[in-house]
């Protein structure tokens, strides 16, 4: 179980590794039954329950062929902050929260992302996700600033 901060950091890294592998069972079993994900960059769109959280994660992974690289994990007793980079190529239609579909652009890129996880009874009860929407839109071929985040 993820009792202390060090345990939570280790478990968090295992969960994010499971995302890269598409191992949704590992993620699901670490979510509280009433887990909520709030996507701040998408107008504070809320996804409820483990099925909603997984839907959000899968909706980004599949069309963007997304993999993540964890940069930093910081935990305390009831919260964890995860900073990571999402890398991908837009290879399949992407459905926006409002239902609009963006066709594949074939473009690749990186998106800096930060998650704030809140824990209750050793399960993730809340995820607040923050990401650079401009970088995501650039990958989808509809960006305003094509040269942003290129090194």
Termini gap: 40 Å
Strand order in space, largest sheet: 2-1-8-7-4-3
Class per helix and strand makeup: alpha+beta
Q: What would the CATH topology be?
A: Nuclear Transport Factor 2, Chain: A
Overall body shape:
globular
Mean pLDDT: 91
**Sheet having the most strands:** 6 strands, mixed
CATH first level: Alpha Beta
**Roughly what percent helix?**
25-40%
Percent strand equals: 35-45%
Radius of gyration: 15 Å
The beta-strand count equals 8
Low-pLDDT parts are: none
Order of helices and strands: HHEEHEEEEEEH
Q: What is the count of DSSP helices, taking H or I runs of 4+ residues?
A: 4
CATH architecture: Roll
Q: What's the domain count?
A: 1
Q: How would you describe the overall organization of this protein?
A:
By secondary structure, the chain is an alpha+beta fold. It has a single domain, classed as Roll (Nuclear Transport Factor 2, Chain: A). 30% of the residues lie in helices and 39% in strands. It has four helices and eight strands; from the N terminus they run ααββαββββββα. The protein has helices at residues 5-21, 24-29, 49-64, 133-139, and strands spanning 31-39, 45-48, 67-75, 79-89, 94-95, 101-102, 108-120, 123-131. The protein has a six-stranded mixed β-sheet. It has a two-stranded antiparallel sheet with strand order 5-6. A hairpin with a 5-residue loop joins strand 5 (94-95) and strand 6 (101-102).
């Amino acid at each position: 179980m993820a009792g202390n901060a060090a345990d939570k950091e280790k478990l968090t890294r295992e969960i994010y590794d499971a995302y890269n592998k598409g191992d949704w069972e590992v993620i699901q079993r670490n979510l509280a039954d009433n887990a909520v994900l709030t996507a701040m960059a998408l107008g504070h769109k809320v996804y409820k329950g483990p099925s909603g959280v997984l839907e959000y994660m899968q909706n980004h992974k599949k069309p963007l062929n997304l993999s993540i690289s964890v940069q930093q994990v910081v935990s305390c007793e009831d919260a964890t902050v995860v900073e990571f980079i999402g890398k991908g190529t837009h290879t399949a239609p992407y459905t926006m929260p409002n239902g609009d579909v963006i066709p594949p652009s074939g473009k690749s890129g990186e998106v800096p992302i930060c998650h704030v996880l809140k824990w209750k009874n050793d399960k993730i009860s809340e995820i607040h996700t923050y990401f650079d929407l401009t970088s995501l839109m650039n990958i989808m071929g509809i960006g305003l600033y094509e040269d942003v985040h290129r090194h």
